[in-house]
Amino acid sequence: MNNSTLKQYFDGHWALVLGASSGFGEAACLHFAEAGLNIFGVHLDRKATLENAERIQSNIKKMGRQVQFFNMNAADDTKRAEAVSAMQSLAPKKIKVLMHSLAFGALKPFIGDDTISKAQVEMTLDVMASSLIYWSQDLHNKGLFSDDARIFAMTSAGSSRVWKSYGAVSAAKAALESYIRQLALELAPFGVTANAILAGVTDTPALRKIPGNPEMIEAATKKNPSKRLTTPQDVAKTLLALSLPHCSFVTGNTLRVDGGENIVE
Fold first, then answer.
1. Helices (DSSP H) in 91-212: which residue ranges?
2. b/e string for 152-169 if b means 16 or more Cβ within 10 A?
3. Would residue 262 count as lying in a domain?
4. pTM confidence score
5. 13 contacts: CB under 8 Å, gap ≥ 6
6. Rounded CA separation 83/88 (Å)
7. Angle CA 54–199–118, to nearest 5
8. Are the CB atoms for 56 and 32 separated by under 8 Å?
9. In CATH, what number is assigned to the domain containing residue 7?
10. How far apart are CA 188 and CA 204, in angstroms?
11. What is the number of structural domains in the chain?
């Protein structure tokens, strides 16, 4: 599709990005808007980091798109209901893309000093995995998904590998991939696809919070066939391509966007 045809296909429709104010979510917002989608964004920022969310919204408006961000806890049932209600009134056309890119969890060991608590494990699973179910349920039940909508969820190699203090997040990523498979099955009759996106090591604010991240960055740069890290833009371009009509039969997968990083020992 050329740019004109692309914008005609997306014209008036919306993307909802959970985790919209940085990293993968930020890049997706901007690429989707450039392609012609209006943007709903959910993010959790305090005063110190709010400026970036405001900058993203300003850039989307400059592209001629509508944008509405909700600064809230995406795992709060009441706040989610309020946001979905607002989306119903704001979106005469429906949501074509739901992207789950929430990166808020406890990074603590299971054993030893300062170990993770039950509440922290449950919070990590709720925010980084189970929240996908509840947002998908609400959008479907309220009739907000378009007939050919796409669901994307950002997973990581941690879903099947171990790293220092990454246990709860690893469990959440494994659960997220399982949820994607189940949503793909149950939403197929409605024309909605669901895929997990497994990016290579990407230098994002979320990565910088993981203990030992400099070693991860160094190892991935050496290992990747392109001798560079994956970027949020690499992922956003892939999401856009998967949102086009010719990818309507791609569902239930965990798709790697890593430049071949995983195939190299």
1. 118-125, 131-141, 167-187, 205-208
2. bbbbbbbbeeebebbbbb
3. no
4. 0.94
5. 36, 37, 38, 93, 94, 95, 96, 146
6. 9
7. 80
8. no
9. 3.40.50.720
10. 32
11. 1
Provide the strand spans (E) within the chain: 14-18, 38-43, 67-71, 95-100, 145-155, 193-199, 254-257
Residue 130 · residue 175 · CB < 8 Å: yes
Q: Answer whether 121's CB lies under 8 Å from 168's CB.
A: yes
pLDDT, tens digit, 9 for 90 and up, residues 53-91: 999 999 999 999 999 999 999 999 999 999 999 999 986
Among candidates 104, 101, 103, 95, which has minimal Cα distance to 68? 95
How far, in Å, CA of 21 to CA of 165, rounded? Answer: 25
Q: Are 261 and 200 in contact (CB under 8 A)?
A: yes
Closest CA to 56 of 14, 24, 99, 79: 24
**For residue 62, what is the enclosing H or E element?**
helix 50-62
Nearest to 184 by CA among 248, 94, 95: 248
Give the range of the structural domain holding residue 247, as residue numbers without chain letter: 3-257
Q: How far apart are CA 63 and CA 61, in angstroms?
A: 5
What would the pLDDT profile of 131-168 be if each residue is shown by its tens digit?
Answer: 999 999 999 999 999 999 999 999 998 898 888 889 99
Within-domain flag for 158:
yes
118-125 and 167-187 helices, crossing angle to 10°: 40
Is 111 among the domain residues?
yes
Please state the φ and ψ torsions of residue 111, each to the nearest 5 degrees: -125, 140
Contacts of 191 (CB under 8 A, 6+ apart): 147, 148, 149, 248
Tokens coding 249 = 């039969």
5: burial class by Cβ within 10 Å (0-12, 13-18, 19+)? exposed
Cβ atoms of 27 and 236 within 8 Å: the answer is: yes
